[in-house]
Amino acid sequence: MQIKDLSLSFGVQKIFDNVNLIIPENEKVGIVGVNGAGKTTFLKVILKKLEPDFGYVKIKKDLRIGFLPQVIDEEIMDNNETVFDFLLNARPIENLNNKLQNLYEKVALNPSSIEQEKLFREVEKTQKKLEYWGFYSYSTELLKIIKGMDISDDILYQEVKKLSGGQKSKVAFARLLYSKPEIILLDEPTNHLDKITRDFVIDYLKKYKGSIYVISHDIDFLNNITTKTLYLDKQNYKMELYDGNYNKFIKVYEAKQQSLENEIKKQNKEIEKLQAIVDKYKFSSGKRKKMAQDREKKLAKMKSEQIDYEPKIKDVKIKMLMNRESGNLPLKVENLCFKYDKKNTNNIIDNLSFSLSKGEKFLIVGPNGIGKSTLLKLIVGKLKQDSGQIIIGNKTDIGYYAQEHELLDNDKSIIDNFDDIAISPNQLRNCLGRFLFYKDDVFKRVGILSPGEKSRVALAKLSLIGANFLILDEPTNHLDPKTQQIIAETFKEFQGTMLVVSHNPDFTNNLGIERTLILPEGKLDYYHEEIVDYYQKLNNEKIKKRTKNRS
Fold this sequence. Notes:
about 550 residues; alpha/beta; Rossmann fold; six-stranded mixed beta sheet; 18 helices
């Protein structure tokens, strides 16, 4: 890949400025940088979904690109095909095989020698394409991916459009892997993956022969896969390519930053020393004046060559305060049942009962599509249960963080998304500043923000509600590791009640969670650091049973 003179701005917001870079073929490249540095934007430029203001990104002709976005395109997934057919059709094997049969039929008609030669060339070309697509092994390859991605039989024969958000993400990922592109672009691919599926994906991508460009805040994922790291610098709008995975990049980058800081300190110290001599002797006469003039020339030269100091990007600062305390029982769920398809006899949520006490931190775990987000939406009133009760306790004020940020209005600016909160303009500006939105940033339309920036807007809004009961659906998705750590520390200190859905063990282990609800069983267990491992073993047993049944 060649990046030549690449420049791009959104209005007054500069993203890239005269970037020049060559990235070798068949590398696995981790794309890193703070939220808003342009990581997703860069992928869109590669895909030609965005036209740069100047310059270009050049890729070898005829290479096919497969792309998995953070948010799955609903138009693509609004599909009447079964999941199995949707996956199978990612390779054009059926069409090519039909074409080959038609060619053989034409050959059998004994055409002229010239026409026959032309047909045989076309036969050879079609056979090569079938070989590329793995004509003799495609079913085995597809079944391996289906098994590895933990796509169960009951999902395989559902219509794609009826899947949950998490299931759609998993199926879209499986289709991408099976489609065998020469270049794979991944934007936060592990957000919806449990450990078993994640391990399969890591192993698959490590063996993948083409180029991979991956944006991820999952450091372990990057360290396992990547051979190069592309750093997008938000401060000077440049890109820099480093050898090695994320950990190697961090060591080199931090050493480089430390060396730069040391050089700046040394330079500033020398400038101060020269300035002191000039100030002391510039009005003298004789040798002292001459010395001052000599030092003044050196000072001017040194200032002209002075290294520009780029201050470090600030960290998010979060305060999660309550307006009042809740009653002793903020939530009680009794015999709750719900299904999306009312004609179906199977409930997504089936006869579920549990309750939370004041100040408790409570985790919900389970495989994708099992109903975790659905349960949260039932509790906050976004969905209506078929039967059972959801009892919100006395003086309970709910703050809800939605996984896909559907509570934000994409057509409004950041600041206009806070119209429903009673707060002075100065207070709002201060709050948004703590979430790294400064000056004209607050007038950006939410729809153009990166998912990480949207996450910060949603967290900012949550921090101002004053809720005493926080309901959080995958709150660390899209956030950089440092911000994940900050919000974990903030939520750990939160004095109210918390109900959390999260696949991120680094987050949940440091949160102070007390109990866990395991879906779909509805089983309650005390939380401990091994709870995720325990649940992964539970998933392993299910996969073994399904595999045994298939065989």
